[in-house]
Amino acid sequence: MGQRLPRAALQRDDPLNGLRVDPYEKGWMIASGIILVLFLLAIGLSAYHGFVLPGHEETLETRPEAGAPRFPEPAVVQKGPGRYDVYMRAQIWAFVPNEIKIPAGSTLTFYLTSADVLHGLLIERTNVNLMALPGQVTKSTARFDQPGEFRFFCHEYCGLGHQIMWGKIIVEPRS
Ligand code: CUA
Fold first, then answer.
1. pLDDT tens digits for 68-118?
2. Which domain holds residue 118?
3. Is 89 in the pocket of ligand 1 (CB under 6 A)?
4. Cα(73) to centroid of ligand 1, in Å?
5. Which of 134, 139, 140, 167 might form a disulfide with 57, Cβ 3.0–4.6 angstroms?
6. Which atom of ligand 1 is nearest the CA belonging to 163?
7. Whether 36 and 109 share a structural domain
8. Is the CB of 86 within 6 Å of ligand 1?
9. In terms of domains, do 84 and 166 share one?
10. Is the CB–ligand 1 distance for residue 130 below 6 Å?
11. Ligand 1 centroid, distance to 158 Cα (angstroms)
């Protein structure tokens, strides 16, 4: 047992009030401080050089004087037997198109952009997981072999109607 001092004396002599920080813990406190600084630098750099999403395909010209952006109207375009391009627009609070019908065994390539704020696209039971930002097109591909319904959702909070922002892909059995 250490020597007992009055509380006032403890506070005056030792700002940590006798609290000993384990060197291992101190090391991690310093490391997490450094990591925070690195993250801040990364945010600063990406804000300066332009923010690019994972799965980035192209950047649209969104300046008003440049005219209409090159992204086509939302559509499902057949590119060949069992191959489709899906041009999808996310907007508050819907996907356009929000229902896609394809035969089983089809491969879909999604091109996604946003008309307003940050949205996301997650298709259940696939690897499609994209973010949508105005002015950027992100791309992902999935193959649908099993007939059935695959719902897709917005997974980036985008305002009051976020939870109603969804749609479905209907995969029909091959005739
Ligand atoms: Cu769109 Cu959440």
1. 445 678 889 999 999 999 999 999 999 999 999 999 999 999 999 998 899
2. 55-61+72-172
3. no
4. 20
5. 139
6. 2
7. no
8. no
9. yes
10. no
11. 4
| 119 contacts 89 by C-beta, under 8 angstroms | no
The mean pLDDT value for 105-133 works out to 94
Spatial neighbors of 144 by CB under 8 A, at least 6 apart, are 102, 104, 105, 106, 107, 108, 126, 150, 169, 171
Where do we find the tokens 């690019």? 52
With a 6 Å cutoff on the Cβ, whether 165 touches ligand 1 is: yes
Q: Are residues 28 and 81 in the same domain?
A: no
pLDDT value, residue 68: 45
| Number of compact structural domains in the chain | 2
| Owner of token pair 């999403």 | 53
Is any ligand 1 atom within 6 A of the Cβ of residue 131?
Answer: no
Judge whether 86 lies within some domain.
yes
Is pLDDT above 80 for 65?
no
Which pTM was predicted? 0.70
